[in-house]
Amino acid sequence: MKKHVLAMAVAASTVALSGVAQAEVKIGFLGGFTGGIESLTPPIFDGAQLAVDQVNEQGGLLDGQMIEMPTGDTTCSDASAASNAADRMVNTEEVTAIVGALCTGATIAAANNAAIPGGVVMVSPASTAPAVSELDDNDLVFRTVPSDAFQGEMLAKLLLEKGIDEVAVTYVNNDYGQGLSDAFATTFEAEGGTVAANLAHEDNRADYRSELGTLSASGVPTLVVLAYADTSGQTVLRQAYESGMFTQYVGADGMVGNSLVDAVGADVLEGMIATRPGSPDLPGTEMFSEAAEEAGVDPDAVFAAQAYDAAFLLALAIEQNGSAEREGLSEALRSVATAPGEVILPGEWEKAVELIAAGTEIDYQGASGTHEFNEAGDVPGIVVEMVVEDGEFVQVGELEANDS
């Protein structure tokens, strides 16, 4: 009887130990699953999930632990929703790190109210406003997407290059819209263009005809809309068309979604010009595209590649840090992202684990860039031109920083 009990105890302890070996490390994902970018969020999440799946399929991290990615909905525009979702991630789910948030206001709210107090590293693949750079974040908030200080400049130069030198601008009244509008207007006017009217608008309203009337009084035919494809941006464009006020439409990354074209009309938006962050022509870009297509993920979806890189970088940083503890993770993140080191490309998880175990420095060069973080946690990047053709946004090409 004693032998039987002893055998059961040994078996139980073996099960317990195997359970420890299969423990989970949590990397949370905060996104706007409802609200202004609800059609853009799923493929962004898919990009991050692809990185997680690759890590798990190649043996996991920290000697076989699997990554779990719980999600939280920030709604994009509700700071309290973002704070609550982040609080759940940090204090209930007890995540090691977070991919996200996506909209700038959500990232700032999540960081200030939960992540920074909890010592949790956040890597946003989509928060582009310059305000993110100014957070007092204890080196906890990073992003794999360039600041709108750059995108606004490139959009302005693109329009001037096309001979569009007078515009009316309306932007969603938050950190994203304000930052992008300021960057755009500063460059546009410095390079000889005229912003004939520039008005903020509140998100999630049913009627923008008053604002459009003021904007159209300027008499210019080009309307620049810096907002979100699934909320105010869509409504502004539809009502602008219905009123016959403008003949050329322009947008930025928050507007680049085929849901916008479907909602407003392909014939209405044919020829619409836009910009969005893109991926440089690097080996990692092609590797990501192949893996994404094989997994049924759209590699060209806005911010999908940046989300993949955010998740893969965090996994590398956790492995480099040697534990699922939060302390030391930001330093480890900078280490795995920064040259010099043995180059790690998307999907090369097993190679990375072997190098880290051997004490070899690594340098991740990802799907959307090399991600050399500066002091503020920002990265250099590229901006690409998009245009609506035959009912969908298509990429025209990369915009050079020295365009004039």
From TrEMBL:
Keyword Signal: yes
Cleavable signal peptide: 1-23
GO biological process: amino acid transport
Keyword line: Amino-acid transport, Signal, Transport
Pfam families registered for this protein in UniProt: Peripla_BP_6
InterPro entries: BCAA_transport, Leu-bd, Leu_Ile_Val-bd, Peripla_BP_I
Name listed for the protein in its UniProt record: Branched-chain amino acid transport system substrate-binding protein
Organism: Halomonas daqiaonensis
